[in-house]
Amino acid sequence: MRFGALKIACIYLIVSLVWITCSDRLLFNMESTLTNAQLLWIGSVKGYFFVTINGLFLYLLINSDKKELLRSEQQYRDIYESNPNPMWIYDSETLQIVSVNDAAVASYGYSKKQFLSKSILDIRPAEDAEKTKNAAHEISDKLNQSGRWRHIKQNGQLIDVNITSHKINFSNKQGVLVMAKDITERVQFEEQLEKINTDLLIEKRKLRETQLISKIAGWEYYPENNNLIWSDELYQITGIEKCDPREAFDIYIKHIYPEDRQLMINALQELISNNKPMNVIHRIVAVDGSTRYIRQIAKVDPSDSLRLKILGSLQDVTEFKQLEEERNRYLHSFEHTLNSISDVFFALDWDMKVTRVNNAFLSLFKDHDHIVGEDIFSLFPKEKNKFYPAYQKALESRVIVKLEEYSQILEKWIRLAAYPTDEGVSVYFTDITENKLKDIKLKEAVERYELVAQATHDVVYDMDIVRDHIEYNTSLTHLVEVSPDDIAHNLSWWRSLIHPDDLAEVVSSQEKIRRQGSTNWECEYRINCGSGNYKYVMDQGYYVFNEKKEAVRLIGAIKDIDALKRANRENVRLANIITQVSNMIIITDTDQRITWVNKAFEEMTGYTLNEVAGRFPMEFLGGSGLDFSDLEQLKEKQRKRESFAVDLMVFSKTQVQVWVSAKLSPAYDSSGNYTGYVTICQDVTSRKEKEEEINRQNELLRNIAWMSSHEIRRPVANMIGLISLLNNRGTESEKQEILRLLNQCSSEMDDMIFLIHQKIQNSFPAEIIIPS
Amino acid sequence: MAFCNPAQVLIIDDDEINNFIVERLIHRLSPESEVIACTNGAEALGFLEKTVSKDNSFPDFIFLDLRMPVLDGWGFLDEYQKRGFQKQCSVIILTSSIFRYDIDRAHEHVVPTQLISKPLTLDHLRDLFWT
Questions:
Q1: Which CATH architecture has domain A82-182?
Q2: In sequence order, what E strands does A195-334 have?
Q3: Which of 57-76 (B) contact A at CB < 8 A?
Q4: Nearest to B118 among A706, A721, A728 (CB)
Q5: Do A718 and B21 touch (CB under 8 A)?
Q6: CATH code for A581-683?
Q7: What ipTM goes with this model?
Q8: Of A61, A265, A303, A446, whose Cβ has the fewest other Cβ atoms within 10 Å?
Q9: What stretches of A287-317 show up as alpha helix (H) in DSSP?
Q10: Neighbours of B2 (CB within 10 A)
Q11: Does B25 touch chain A (CB under 8 A)?
């Protein structure tokens, strides 16, 4: 409890006055009973007592007041520190923040220390600095509502705050206490609200413009007092002045075409009486005298329960009406066109029901009474309807689908086109059976031609003689090394390829045929297939003549017969070689029986082909020089169809021995089938004889060499040994003995040489050659 | 190395001149050596059997010719191997043959220690006796 200085002073005054008055009165009353000394003492004691009591009392009062002051101060500090709103105090002169509460720290994100290092300018955008200084300068002593300011948080976020401030004395300096209330969300909300309002206004304007463009306007009608209220747009659309004093309802009824007036009134009556929404179109005579079509749509406003209120809209649909009429005219024309075309037409809705057909379609289904509205599958059963996927695709994918197919139902080839429409799909089809059959035949003919062309590799050509134009098939580039671009489609180009030696014959043979009026021409000639490489070709053509019997076309085929020609030449050459060759040639079949022998065989053996045909060669040639195992090996090789060579001795018809070297090779036909063996025999009799002679000489040489090694060398070695003994020390008798033995050795050697000479002479009695 | 002196030498050759040369050369080198000559393989085998059974002695060297009547050098070698005569004895083929076939065959046979092409010389003998 605080007393305050005045209260304390008053209490002190009253108590002092009461004490002085009362104690002095009491002392006065006691004056009679007391001495002066006693009176003086009591008076002094009274004075001391009074002063003491007063001192004590003052101390208690002041102490109590001080405590009260401190508590009060703490309360205010708590109000400041714990205030949920951010608060701070700044120095009025320096604008430096000198104190800040917890809410400011929490809300702004700056620490207390950071706050105290900033001025109030530091927590604002730089552009607000001047404004802030002015505001701080103008702070009054009363409560200042500074309004909306922008502050910057520690994280850089800009916030909107509402500032309340008050001047205070803080730490003996002039300061300002500031309370900031974050109103960012409120500001944002206000801004959003403002934007919505702006948008709404724009939308409203747009709607108004749209209404004017589409010529729609609203009205309200109150039947109880026949009050029709028009919107501004309605006045604008109708051209009626807003200031017209007449009742709007009357004005409007008057403008309606007389023929349509009752329709409108009836519809309005139905709406009023039976709450049936109104939707009518009527004509009016506009202010400018023109006829306009107006659609009226109206219904009862259920929100107004007090009185019947009708809300309606009016639309000038003159243009739509005109378009509709145009469309109807077009539809009529379309219908007419559809019925006049030979193509079959029908339209389907989204459920595949027929919505429209033309006469051509009706003629297909003469027996059906009701076609429109029928399911298409009742007319064309789904299981047989190959065109169904086309309808389905056009319907679902909204694309044009075209198809050619054979219809089992109509038993015709159909070319069909399905077009997606708003209502579903429109289908047109044509009977193309006749064309299709022609196409198929043509396609088959072309395919056949192409297959034949591919199979033969012949160059097929078609020459238009009048236009001098030749068309070739692709085989030309196989025959002649020419790129398709370099082919000149005229006769002179083709003739430039013909060998100069053959050209005259080609030209003359063609002219001959044309003169005769014959159709078939053929000629063999050579053509330049590139790089001067000529090939033989057989050109066979067919001439087509016009009514004047002039050749106008030549169709032909050129066959590459080069290989055949060369093969023929090669065959002739080979036949000559085989006939002229000196080696015997025997051709046997798969049973090893002779089928053919050449002239050399006939000459060497004395047997003719007729004599040996069908016989086994060994049966009459009596081959020898082979042992049994050799024969078995040869038979095995023949079984395996291997090529092999063998030397053997055969006998001619006159039993003359002939050594032959036979080379046997299996033969195969062009299909790779084994046909037998071809045996080529060379007469090697003289070679064989020489071989035998050489063998004999070799044997003799071996014998002489052996004798030289053993028989001659023995006495020679002995002589060498004896001579070496003779050269060394020895007795005279021993030397005599050695000389005797030497003599014996030389005698043995002489015998041996004689023996060798004898042997050679026995072997080659007439062929001793004396070296020169 | 030791010089084999006196040595017992067996010559198997039907060529008496050769036997004469070999004997003389041996005696010149080692006069105390004993030289016995047989003229074919069969005779030599008989001699060897006899001398082994008699006093269990065996020649130190056998000079063997290849071409001989009755039993030639190859036959002797096969028999010699078959009968298992002691192996300390050096069997030397002494032949006048210079045929490659004979030389190769001699090298392939286990019994002969070497082949000397005739004539035998003192140098050959020195090499043999200094073993």
A1: 2-Layer Sandwich (3.30)
A2: 216-222, 227-230, 278-285, 291-300, 310-316
A3: 67
A4: A721
A5: yes
A6: 3.30.450.20
A7: 0.87
A8: A303
A9: none
A10: 7
A11: yes
